[in-house]
């Protein structure tokens, strides 16, 4: 989001030779190709795969659309600026490009904020999620995000809320006043950053709390089970320990996931917005350094279609149908998991009590159930082992992006009610 406007009076028809070297041109072309190709592929997957057409993915489509516009509309002219050292397109396109630059980058950041809010509602209160986040409300939030991004971009440029600074500079940049930069940056970056950090930290706390609850539940399962044989008791105890260990690993993975997401976001955009505010106060930031920070922010649109689907199994399955290397990786992973499950359950007794536990059937948090008189009861359901089919587990309890329904073994019932 370059924020300074100034064009030399020289004609843009004589392009001359680009000042940038071949390595810079190749690197920028790769970034543009990855941004456009990755976001286009994910939009295509969501539109063509019925399994991906969910309310949560509305926000991902909006994010990928804004990132796609960054790759198709914003990056190519910015690359020409870097290579030629000046604005080589028509003068009438300068303001339009700057407006799209600010709008698309702001929309991408605001969409990340909406995704964090959606994950927050889903994981903190999954039983009420569908009632709270309806398709109409999701579309309304997306429309509000794009409207705010458009107001922060097209309105100031076309209302003349900027300075015609750097008239001897051949570049197309917008030099805005300090009050406008503070308001625009606050609405499109600093406030969304606070919201993203808060929601993801709350998600992490909830995920770790659920992992502790599952570990405690697995430890106390032996007191609730009535094994028929000593071998069955030993197998059930071992299964419960594996169950708790898997959820601990899930909590660790959730922590690493949040670290990657927040780290990529702040590394990409925080330096630019800080430099953008400083630049309005003093002319002490070199132009080349500011351009590097601008492209670092652009690269966030390149990483979004890589980072987010990386933690979503539905996208991996759908991508395996289109990309040969993804299909090979998914088939190999599936075969390894299947082999591991067969080895871990070989020699197990014929009847093993299993506990299925997911975020949609978890222990309720305060305020999640209308009736305050509820208690957690564990239904012991011996299941007969089926050849070639691994027994159900609850390993997806602490997953930020995969909330797969499983058969509920944990039942909520009124206090003092008889247990079946």
UniProtKB/TrEMBL annotation:
Question: What keywords would UniProt list here?
Answer: Cell membrane, Disulfide bond, G-protein coupled receptor, Membrane, Receptor, Transducer, Transmembrane, Transmembrane helix
What Pfam family does this protein match (any one)?
Answer: 7tm_1
UniProt GO molecular function: G protein-coupled serotonin receptor activity
Any idea what job this protein has? G-protein coupled receptor for 5-hydroxytryptamine (serotonin), a biogenic hormone that functions as a neurotransmitter, a hormone and a mitogen. Also has a high affinity for tricyclic psychotropic drugs. Ligand binding causes a conformation change that triggers signaling via guanine nucleotide-binding proteins (G proteins) and modulates the activity of downstream effectors. HTR6 is coupled to G(s) G alpha proteins and mediates activation of adenylate cyclase activity. Controls pyramidal neurons migration during corticogenesis, through the regulation of CDK5 activity.
Please identify the protein, giving its name as recorded: 5-hydroxytryptamine receptor 6
Q: What is its main location?
A: membrane
The family classification in the record reads: Belongs to the G-protein coupled receptor 1 family.
Instruction: Give GO terms for biological process.
Output: adenylate cyclase-activating adrenergic receptor signaling pathway; positive regulation of MAPK cascade
Membrane topology per the entry is: Multi-pass membrane protein
Species of provenance: Vombatus ursinus
Q: What Gene3D superfamilies does UniProt report for this protein, alphabetically? A: Rhodopsin 7-helix transmembrane proteins
Please indicate which superkingdom the organism of origin belongs to. Eukaryota
Name all G-protein coupled receptors family 1 profile domain ranges.
38-308
Subcellular localization, per the record? Answer: Cell membrane
According to its record, what are the GO cellular component terms? plasma membrane
Q: Which residues cross the membrane?
A: 23-46, 58-75, 95-117, 138-156, 176-200, 251-272, 292-311
